[in-house]
Here is the input.
Amino acid sequence: MERARPVESGFFPLDEELGLLAGNLTPHQQESLVRLGVHMPFEQARAMLTALTGVQVSEATARRQTQAAGQAYERVQQAQAQPMKGKKNEQCGCRGCQPPRVPKGKRKKVKPVEQMVLSSDGVLISLVGGKWVEVKTLAIAEIETDAQSDALRILDFAHAAGYLSEIATLVTAAGATLAPEWVAEQLHTLKHEGPKPVLAEVAALREQYPQVEELGKKATYLQKREQHMQYPAYQEQGWPIGSGMVESANKHVVQARLKGAGMHWAPEHVNPMLALRTAERNESWLEAWQQSSEHRRSQRMQQRIQRQQSRYQQVLRAVQCLVLLLYTRKPRPTKPTRSPSAPQHVGPARPASDHPWRRRFLAKK
Here is the structure.
């Protein structure tokens, strides 16, 4: 029995028309699996997909499909963030990476935002190999108020409170006697009267204990940020003075999925998961999945074209080598021909009748 010839991956032309992705799952099943993998560990996502749809997949499939969708969506966002030159993005030509085109008659006028809040914070994520990496989160919100204001930098009130508490600990260790409610009183003053009286109190402690080097660093830190601690004015204008907004975003977007018990992530898988988590929490999942799927189909088409071009180049090189071989091949040497006057011998020559070989050994008498 002969062995079967090896085969290569192929495609069915109808796959492109139906918008199918790589794998054995339908687009809806893939989307359901990826969306579950964004919310829960991959083993739980696999079990949940089986319980809801009856489709059985492995944990590795759930992980692979979720990571592939996240990586595609991350590339889409990176391409859209690049400067646009002409009509197409230089990073990627697929439709998913291009900003949506809206006809002029259907374009809506966007009301300009008068005030917005940008709050950033970080959280540590455990990586494979015992390393840790900080993930930065940026929360953006609109302030609904009639007050007009330029861009402001506000020091998180909880951050300032932490510095005041550390200052109290340092001067107490140096021998100072502070009232138990000293920190609470300073925070109340800072929040309702402003930073000036609080900084004066800190400066007095710094002069009293100049030998405490760390006390001087923390006092300098607060003094340089006096303009960022005008909390009474900020509250009057409607600005938040705390970082609860971004801390909540860290909790629900990052920690809820990436900081589970025993979880360790490869560095290249962190951003793709965060891209999908952000889209899910921003209620823009359908748009994100469409762009991710379009990018994956475009990449698969490009890979198919590259394989075809590679095969064409191989065949072309083989034909070129064959033609070169035919043109450079030396002709075989031909045997010399005899002149017409020379006797022609066909087969071996026979001896004459009187040749000694033809005589009998014993003559008859």
The radius of gyration is 41 Å. Strands lie at 116-126, 132-142. Residues 285-328 form the longest helix (44 residues).
